[in-house]
Amino acid sequence: MDGPRPREVLERLREIGARCVRGNTDRYIAEFDRADEDDEESAALAWQCAHLGETWVRWLGDLPFSLRIGDGEDALLAVHANPKCDDIHIWPDADDAFLERMFAGVPEKTIVFGHLHLPYARVWRDRLLVNVASAGLPKDGDARAAYALLTQRSGGWEVKHRRVPFDVEKVVRDIERSKMPGARRHIKTLRRHRYKELAVRIP
């Protein structure tokens, strides 16, 4: 929720009946204190709040932390970043100790998440970990929008990642017209569409 057309995005989600979980940026917007606007990040949050309006800001704050589809261990658990919090990445090369902390006490064997804008599926022990990546800000070096389809089969959940071309320069023009704070930084990130860490973490 930090793009140039936040209200239109939420209206579209409502129109199609989407089930959503709250992400870290949604939380930042919902909890934003308008008295604190002395830096670019705060100014950007204030801009989002103003363009969304009180009703949509409240809607973001009321979103659930997680969604479960199915029952017991066979259910699919959807969260923004991980089952513990909304702002710690699960990298595809995360070690056992880290994953043990993230998934301790989680009964579901299939967990889908985002936050880290890299599409991947990883089998770790008896779990399927799926990063659905990002429709609006891919960061794996591929400028196309990313999403994932999950289908429950008799042997468990099947995952298929999909990529769809979208007009990056049109989004750039939307950002420029919006006058949103931090526009130059947003445009640079959008055009680069790649984490700097990838060269080190995933050569």
* Total helical segments: 8
As laid out across the biggest beta sheet, the strand order is 1-2-3-5-4
- Looking at how many chains there are and whether they match, the oligomeric state comes to single chain
CATH homologous superfamily label of the domain at 66-166: Metallo-dependent phosphatases
So what's the CATH class of the domain at 66-166?
Answer: Alpha Beta
Average pLDDT figure: 93
CATH architecture of the domain at 66-166: 4-Layer Sandwich
Strand content: 15-25%
Structure description:
Helices cover 35% and strands 20% of the residues. With 203 residues, it is α/β, with parallel strands linked by helices. The protein has a five-stranded mixed beta sheet with strand order 1-2-3-5-4, with no helix packed on it. The chain has a two-stranded antiparallel ribbon with strand order 6-7. Strand 1 (66-69) and strand 2 form a beta hairpin. Helix 2 (24-30) packs across helix 4 (54-61) and helix 6 runs antiparallel to helix 7. It is globular. The model has no long low-confidence stretch (mean pLDDT 93).
Q: What is the topological layout?
A:
Blueprint: H1 6-15, H2 24-30, H3 40-52, H4 54-61, E1 66-69, E2 76-79, H5 96-103, E3 110-113, E4 120-124, E5 127-131, E6 145-153, E7 156-164, H6 168-178, H7 183-192, H8 198-201
Parallel strand pairs: 2-3, 3-5
Antiparallel strand pairs: 1-2, 4-5, 6-7
Helix pairs in contact: 2-4, 6-7
